[in-house]
Amino acid sequence: GGAAALPSDLTGRRVVISAGGTREPLDPVRYLGNRSSGKQGWALARVAAARGAEVVLVAANVELPAPFGVRVAPVGTAEELRAAMLAEAGAGEAVADVVVMSAAVADFRPVSVAATKLKKGAASEPSAIELARNSDVLAELVTKRPPGQLVVGFAAETGDDDADVLTHARAKLARKGCDLLVVNDVSAGQVFGRADNAVVVLGAEGPDTEVPHGSKDAVAAGIWTAVSARLAPPAG
Ligand code: CTP
Ligand code: CA
Fold first, then answer.
1. What does the record give under GO molecular function (predicted)?
2. Does the structure's ipTM exceed the value 0.90?
3. Through-space distance between the first and last CA atoms of the chain, rounded to whole angstroms
4. Residue with the nearest Cα to atom 12 of ligand 1?
5. How many other CB atoms are there within 10 angstroms of residue 118's CB atom?
6. Any ligand 1 atom below 6 A from CB of 137
7. Does any ligand 1 atom lie closer than 6 A to the CB of residue 138?
8. pLDDT by residue (tens digit) across 24-46?
9. In testing the pocket of ligand 1, which one of 80, 107, 134, 201 has its CB within 8 Å of the most ligand atoms?
10. pTM score, two decimals?
């Protein structure tokens, strides 16, 4: 007796999770990056594996050790993350049941990458960085998803003069076409790199789920409960 049994609601499920933040190179030593730590994605992978899933973690520039039983596929740029996610989500006979885009994907990359280090005082000293739009991995996963696969997006939003956080998030859910959107309110600016978190899981269909403030593992558990409620019954 004692502790409640860990749910095994993800047994036999294959899940693919992106985590961390992409880096877009400028030259051999410099990049444009972001502050995503990868901790929430790591927690999602750890909890899914503990609940019985076969888990692949596509990790963009995260230095954390692989969670127990999880296969980690390291990537650097948004384009590398895109290729890895498409391959893992739709891989042959082993199509994923759930795909989760928790990585912070760079929206833009430098148009040209210098082959050698940019130098002060050089004739070609740069005065600006020209950027090109990266492709939207989540939107592409939605378009290419096999039948029955759930696609989950993440959004860090702030309220502004136009609308509150959830209004912005509902618009993003509709725009992206994913099944679920996990929303972080970052208005107070305190989520990045922190050990704890709180989210709302918005559904394209069905009710929203509020996951209360807690450790990233506790929030991951709440997210998986919302996701597994929407999974089609196991095949066979
Ligand atoms: N995302 C993605 N590919 C991109 C950008 C974002 O797959 N090139 C995914 C993120 O991993 C996340 C979701 O899209 O799951 C929402 O990311 P977000 O940055 O909030 O959305 P954007 O469409 O980039 O909108 P914004 O202009 O607000 O940044
Ligand atoms: Ca973005």
1. FMN binding; metal ion binding; phosphopantothenate--cysteine ligase activity; phosphopantothenoylcysteine decarboxylase activity
2. yes
3. 33
4. 154
5. 14
6. yes
7. yes
8. 999 999 999 999 999 999 999 99
9. 107
10. 0.94
Could you tell me if the CB of 154 is within 6 A of ligand 1? yes
- Give nearest CA residue, ligand 1 atom 8: 136
| 120 annotated binding-site participant | no
Give the C-alpha separation, 208 to 229, whole Å. Answer: 12
CB 211 within 8 A of CB 198: yes
Measure 106 CA to ligand 2 centroid, in angstroms.
Answer: 6
Flag whether 154 is marked binding.
Answer: yes
Rounded to 5 degrees, φ, ψ at 56 are -115, 130
Token pair, residue 32, equals 């444009």
Q: Write the DSSP symbol of residue 54.
A: E
Please give the structure tokens belonging to residue 26: 């400028």
Catalytic-residue membership of 197 = no
57-60-65-70 Cα dihedral, nearest 10 degrees: 10
pLDDT, one tens digit for every residue, the chain (236 residues): 455 678 899 999 999 999 999 999 999 999 999 999 999 999 999 999 999 999 999 999 999 999 999 999 999 999 999 999 999 999 777 899 999 999 999 999 999 999 999 999 888 788 899 999 999 999 999 999 999 999 999 999 988 999 999 999 999 999 999 999 999 988 765 555 666 678 999 999 888 999 999 999 999 999 999 999 999 887 66
